[in-house]
Amino acid sequence: MTQTTAPPLTLYERDLDLWLEMVIVQLKAGDFHNLDVENLIEELEGLSGSNKREIESRLIRLIEHILKRCYVNMPDCYRGWEVTIINKRDKLRRLLRQSPSLKRHFLQSFDESFDTALELVRTEYDQTNFPDTWQFSSEIEMMLTVKFWE
User: Fold this and answer.
1) Residue 23: how many CB atoms within 10 A of its CB?
2) What letters, b where the CB count within 10 A reaches 16 and e where it falls short, cover 83-106?
3) Residue 49 CB-half CA count within 13 A
4) H/E element holding 30?
5) Which H/E stretch holds residue 149?
6) What are the pLDDT digits (tens) for 42-67?
7) Residue 97: closest CA among 35, 44, 47, 55
8) Reduced to 3 DSSP states, what percent helix, strand and coil does the chain have, rounded to the nearest 5?
9) C-alpha 118: how far from its chain's center?
10) Whole-number pLDDT of residue 18
11) What b/e readout covers 48-73, taking b as 16+ CB neighbours within 10 angstroms?
12) What is the pLDDT of residue 49?
């Protein structure tokens, strides 16, 4: 019976942070010949996907809390919802300022994000009559500034 041994783990598999540090050094030095291109591409694709998922997650929470603030008659909760709205708007502004190209994803994912937020608030507040469609502007600047409940 022959025993096969697994190949040794690569630095990428053993220690992602150390691998990243090494790749940065290689890039700065122009050492493209020894660069782990396959894993670098994988990491860059993951980063891009992560930013898009963050936009979607924060947009869902923003819409969810705007819906609550506009349609749920619970004045004792207004301040908490408004604080969450301010926080989500700030995080979205920062993301979009850092990566303006994500504005396209914000706009493309708006309808699906609204549907998810609507499902969440309808489940949480099943006695509240929420509209089936977004009743306000979905333009980025409006979503990040306007108090739709005033």
Assistant:
1) 20
2) ebbeebbebbeebbeeeeebeebb
3) 6
4) none
5) none
6) 999 888 789 999 999 999 999 999 99
7) 55
8) 70, 0, 30
9) 18
10) 93
11) eeebbeebbebbbbbbbbbbbbbebe
12) 86
Q: Considering the chain, what is the average pLDDT of its residues?
A: 94
Please say whether the beta carbons of 41 and 71 come within 8 A.
no
Q: Which two tokens stand for residue 2?
A: 């022959």
- Sign of the Cα pseudo-torsion (74, 77, 83, 84, in order): negative
Q: Which amino acid is at 24?
A: I
Q: Mind listing the pLDDT tens digit for each residue in 20-48?
A: 999 999 999 999 999 999 999 999 988 87
Q: Which two tokens stand for residue 64?
A: 């969810």
Exposed (0-12), middle (13-18) or buried (19+): which is 117, by Cβ within 10 Å?
buried
Q: Region 123-144: what's the mean pLDDT?
A: 97
The per-residue pLDDT for 1 is: 58
Looking at residue 26, its amino acid is Q
